[in-house]
Amino acid sequence: MTVRAVEVPRLWMPYPLRVNPHLPALHEESESWAREMGMLDGYGGPSARRAIWTRSKFHAMTVDQLTAWTLPDAPLAELRLNHRFNVWALAWDDYFASAFKQTGDLPGARAFTDRLHAFLRPELGARLPEPTNAVERGIADLQLRLFPPRLAHWRHEFNRALARYVDAGVEELANSRSGHVPHLIDYAPFRRESFAAHTAPYSVELSTGARIPERILHTRTVRGLLDAFMDFMGLANDIASYEREVHEEHDVNNLVLVVGTSLGIGLHEAVPAALNLVNARLRDFEHFRRIDLPRLVRQAGLHHDERTELETWLRGACGFLSGLHAWYTGAPRYASADGPYPQ
User: Fold this and answer.
1) Residue 343 lies in a domain
2) Neighbouring C-beta atoms of residue 125, cutoff 10 Å
3) Which residues pair with 2 in a beta bridge?
4) d(Cα 48, Cα 66) in Å, to the nearest integer?
5) N or C: at which end does the chain have fewer Cβ atoms within 10 angstroms?
6) DSSP 4-69
7) Please, are residues 65 and 327 in contact by the beta-carbon 8 Å criterion?
8) What is the pLDDT of residues 228-285, one digit of tens each?
């Protein structure tokens, strides 16, 4: 496989792809929520002139497959909820790119983001502003649905992650306008924010009904495991979206550019170096999962139910990574004229 004719190693994925059996139901209703929110052409409300996608472009993204591949164990109700969140995150991304990144409108991006913050309220039942566009309408609707009682503990952290996600878009735009390529040392934690990776543990909890036990949640081992889990998501996305981000959107916030600039190497060396870093983070996740975490479980004296819940969550996390890998390497969103990106 090539990225701009550069030979690269394969993107490693040790976990088999598992597909949620509710995918057909999700496919049947895939566009209904997006259309209701005004994200698709044909919406009859006040945002009709600001639709984000045509119907054909929306279906080419295969968001239903993304959801069913990343959450293979989710019941239908939770799968639908996660699907809506995935649609919203992609809607924000594409709207922000077309309205602000392509125009270089940094003041407009800041004003748009400031308004979004008013919709990210951690207080249950908080009064939200009246939405004025499809992105605001989508997040307002999700605020009413995302937090079932058993996951109420996630309301504050999830909204905080979303706030960091939209703020990172403004920082990315500022970098691109100034030509400032982030340094490699700073980039991985920033990419967790700009990819909304901090929301992924919530999605795994919602789909599996399992949590990482509180007794070990704040340990260095679990923190390391979660960091590696989140790093794979955004950094692998950089490999998959290199062509679109760098050569079409002229974005400087991409791991390939970051590695090349930070290390002072050319594209032919930067591409495989970046992909090796992504593979290394997945190997780190595997080491934490197979070696360090079992040792911590024994030391903490977790009882049978806690161990079972942890194993369920980990199985869900592995499925999440496998599904993302499949989507990156197969979805038309990441296809180029030369074919799909490294597998």
Assistant:
1) no
2) 7
3) 7
4) 26
5) C
6) TTEE-PPPP--SPP---TTHHHHHHTTTHHHHHHT-BTT--STTGGG-SB-HHHHHHT-HHHHHHH
7) yes
8) 999 999 999 999 888 877 877 778 999 999 999 999 999 889 999 999 999 999 999 9
Q: Is residue 118 part of a domain?
A: yes
Query: Which tokens belong to 217?
Result: 């949640």
Assign residue 333 a region (left: φ > 0; alpha: ψ between -120 and 50; beta: otherwise): alpha
Is there a contact between 25 and 49 (Cβ–Cβ < 8 Å)? no
- The structure's pTM equals 0.90
Q: What secondary structure letter does DSSP report for 123?
A: S
Determine contact, residues 4/267, Cβ cutoff 8 Å. Answer: yes
Q: Which residues pair with 339 in a beta bridge?
A: 336
Q: At what angle do helices 184-194 and 255-263 cross, to 10 degrees?
A: 170
Full residue range of the structural domain in which residue 225 is found: 2-334
Determine contact, residues 39/293, Cβ cutoff 8 Å: no
- Phi and psi of 336, rounded to 5°? -125, 175
* Residues in contact with 312: Cβ distance below 8 Å, sequence separation at least 6, in sequence order: 208, 209, 210
CATH code for the domain of 312: 1.10.600.10
d(CA 329, CA 84): 22
3-class secondary-structure state, position 97: helix
Residue 232 lies in a domain: yes
What is the β-pairing status of strands 6-7 and 2-3? Answer: antiparallel
And the tokens for 48? Answer: 């009709």
114 within a domain of the structure (yes/no): yes
Structure confidence by residue, pLDDT tens digits, 102-152: 899 999 999 999 999 999 976 666 788 899 999 999 999 998 888 777 777
Spell out the alpha helix ranges (H) of the chain. 23-28, 32-37, 55-60, 63-70, 76-96, 106-117, 134-143, 155-178, 184-194, 200-208, 214-217, 220-240, 242, 255-263, 267-287, 293-300, 304-330
